[in-house]
Amino acid sequence: MEYLDRLIAINQMLSSELELKPQLKSILSKVVEMLSCDAASIMFYDEDEELLNFSVSVGAESDELAAIPIPVEGSIAGLIFTQRTPMIINDVPKNPDYFTVVEERTGYQVRSLLGVPIIIRERTIGVLEGLNKIEGEFTEADAQLLSLVAAQTSVAINNAHIIEELQQANEELRQADKLKADFMAVASHELRTPLGIILGYATFLKEEAKGEFSEHAGTVHAAAMRLRALLEDMTNMNLLYTGATELRLRPIQIQNMIKTIFDDISQMAKAVDYQLEFIPPSQDLWVNADERLQKVFENLLNNAIRFTPPKGEIVVRISATEGEILVEVQDSGIGIHPNEVERIFAHFYQVEHHMRRRYEGLGLGLAIARGMVDLHHGRIWAESDGPGKGSTFKVLLPRFAI
Ligand code: ADP
After folding, report:
1. What residues flank ligand 1, with Cβ below 6 Å?
2. What spacing in Å lies between the alpha carbon of 354 and ligand 1's midpoint?
3. pLDDT tens string 66-117
4. What is the pLDDT of residues 209-233, one digit of tens each?
5. Is it the case that residue 3 has pLDDT exceeding 70?
6. Would you give the DSSP letter of residue 377?
7. What is the CATH code of the structural domain delimited by 250-398?
8. Which sign does the torsion angle of CA 303, 307, 313, 317 carry?
9. What is the distance in A from the centroid of ligand 1 to the CA of 362?
């Protein structure tokens, strides 16, 4: 029962401590107690050197031991390692495989020894040893117990490897992410100046040139405007990377902000084909927000028009509870499959494959919207009864008391 308690204690420790060496050290302290022995140590196999190295020990001088590599051939630990089996040796000095160098260097005399292999996924990676039973000899029961501890130890080591790999992968991802953000910042900045020139001349040509040429200039102008919208998306994405530190918060009356966008969009040439409705709240509602929050509603309204066939209905509704404001942008358009309602918020995600796309865009609009809403401690999501059944995008924002 006592053993069981200690095994459970080891297990609890494994889940509570992440650093490997302190964990191994605590395991060894428990081993010494459980086996009633003098010292314990863990050795790991070094594949390059083909040697066993002390990693941690208790009851014996760790630093000194660490400097003494143990050969795989000509040592008891090496035998346990290659034969992958526990060994009890109660008269160590007489054993032909005893590697005497450790004793010569440290002065620590080994009388009896119990060692078991440490195996991770079929691969032996080291040896766990208990040394010098205080009274009597190491027994079969001790060996079984130590094998259990070795199995737990391998779990700890495995976890530590997985965590290390995860941390490394995380760091690589972070760097890739930063590279992407830096690239977007530089690209969007550098493209702005030449684009400004193209836009300026295209506007001039559109007005000054005659007939067909004016039309061509109009096409260039429209394309450059689209490019400008894309650049704006890239810049906004970058704001999301740099995060909340860049936000300039001030109280904004939400219905004014959204009504302005609604009116602008209602005046777009395409919008005349739609039945647009704006349902304001019954009272003034304020949010503490950056002006760029308006990008959220621009994107939602633009999408509502782009993904709704002409003659469709688009309703913007603003309401509130005591603490929150709800903005709904509802359309009677192409709708969204249940599998897609969450995915559409991912960067560069578009339901239609880009080669077959009827709708232009980068697939960034909703990612920007979500990022922006997150920065304002709100929530945004989509609801739809499925393809052809229209969609409603909902934005919940904390209400600012004025
Ligand atoms: P983009 O519009 O540039 O493709 P978004 O992030 O704004 O990027 O939208 C991602 C995808 O979500 C769109 O490509 C479209 O498939 C889907 N989507 C967005 N808004 C609607 C809507 N109102 N109705 C149906 N599908 C929509």
Report:
1. 299, 303-304, 307, 331, 333-334, 336, 344, 349-352, 361-367, 391
2. 12
3. 678 999 999 999 999 999 999 999 999 999 999 988 888 888 889 999 999 9
4. 888 888 999 999 999 988 888 888 8
5. no
6. T
7. 3.30.565.10
8. negative
9. 10
65 conformational bin, left if phi > 0, alpha if psi -120 to 50, beta if neither: alpha
In terms of C-beta distances under 8 Å and separation of at least 24 residues, what long-range contacts does 3-8 make, across chains too?
3/34, 3/145, 6/30, 6/33, 6/34, 7/148, 7/149, 7/152
Q: Per-residue pLDDT tens for 256-315?
A: 999 999 999 888 756 678 899 999 999 999 999 999 899 999 999 999 998 999 999 999
For the chain, the domains span 2-162, 168-242, 250-398
User: Per-residue DSSP letters for 379-399?
Assistant: EEEEEESSTTS-EEEEEEEEP
Amino acid code (one letter) for 103: E
SS3 3: helix
CATH class (in words) of the domain with range 2-162: alpha beta
Q: Is the pTM here over 0.85, yes or no?
A: no
Q: How far is CA 152 from CA 19, 23, 157, in A?
A: 15, 11, 9
Q: In this model, does residue 328 exceed pLDDT 90?
A: yes
Alpha carbon distance 146, 273 (integer Å): 79
Work out the pLDDT band at 246, boundaries 50, 70, 90: confident
Task: Look at residue 209 in the predicted model and tell me its pLDDT.
Answer: 86
Q: What pLDDT score was predicted for residue 104?
A: 85
Q: Which mutation among 231, 233, 344, 356 tests ligand 1's pocket best, with the greatest number of atoms within 8 A of CB?
A: 344
CA distances from 393 to 2, 298, 304, 375 (A): 60, 12, 9, 18
For atom 13 of ligand 1, which residue has the closest CA? 350
Ligand 1 centre to CA of 341 (Å) is 10
The Cα–Cα gap between 58 and 32 comes to: 8
For a mutational test of ligand 1's pocket, the pick from 307, 359, 368, i.e. the residue with the most ligand atoms closer than 8 A to its C-beta, is: 307
- Decide if pLDDT at 248 tops 60: yes
Per residue in 166-207, pLDDT (tens digit) is 888 888 988 888 887 788 778 888 888 899 999 999 999 989
Residue with the smallest CA separation from ligand 1 atom 20 is: 303
Task: Please give the number of the atom of ligand 1 that sits closest to the Cα of 368.
Answer: 6
Tokens 């232009």 belong to: 360
